Amino acid sequence: MALLSRAQIDGADDRKWEDVPVPEWGGDVRLLGLSGTARNAYEKSLVQLGPNGAVQRVNLENATARLVSLCLVDENFERLYTDKEIARLGAKNGAVLQRLHETAQRLSGLGKKAVETAEGNSEAAPSGSSTSD
After folding, report:
1. pLDDT at 113
2. Residue 52: what pLDDT?
3. In angstroms, rounded to a whole number, what is the distance separating the alpha carbons of residues 77 and 16?
């Protein structure tokens, strides 16, 4: 397989999204996985670092609704809830938000399962030696 050029990488549409049924709300919603930049900003919003760079405080206030609000989009991939409207979304049913949060995590490569997959720990390591050259 040939190596990709910068233009090919820049031109690739690698967004992941999923339409999720939410019977409690009477229909489906679309969740779009975060870009790398948006994912880093979300992760940064969860912690406050001290002057020495160590985690000083964890900010879990509306963390579930915050991630869902970042990923919840319309058919044109425009966010449905702004940062100022996170509390409004957070007032919805917690079980629904948790289901949507889990999907948003998976689409964005967040959470324990994503880390395990990235590290290659999601399955037991194969035994024996490698046959590749």
Report:
1. 53
2. 87
3. 11
More confident residue, 54 or 118: 54
Listed by start position, the domains of the chain span: 15-112
DSSP state of 26: T
For 24-50, what is each residue's pLDDT tens digit? 999 999 999 999 999 999 998 998 888
CB 104 within 8 A of CB 67: yes
Are 81 and 72 in contact, with CB atoms under 8 Å apart? yes
Looking at this protein, which amino acid is placed at residue 63?
A
pTM to 2 decimal places: 0.78
Helices (H), 5-132: 6-11, 36-45, 63-71, 86-90, 94-108, 112-119
Maximum C-alpha span of the chain: 56
Topology adopted by domain 15-112: rbstp2171 (3.30.2220)
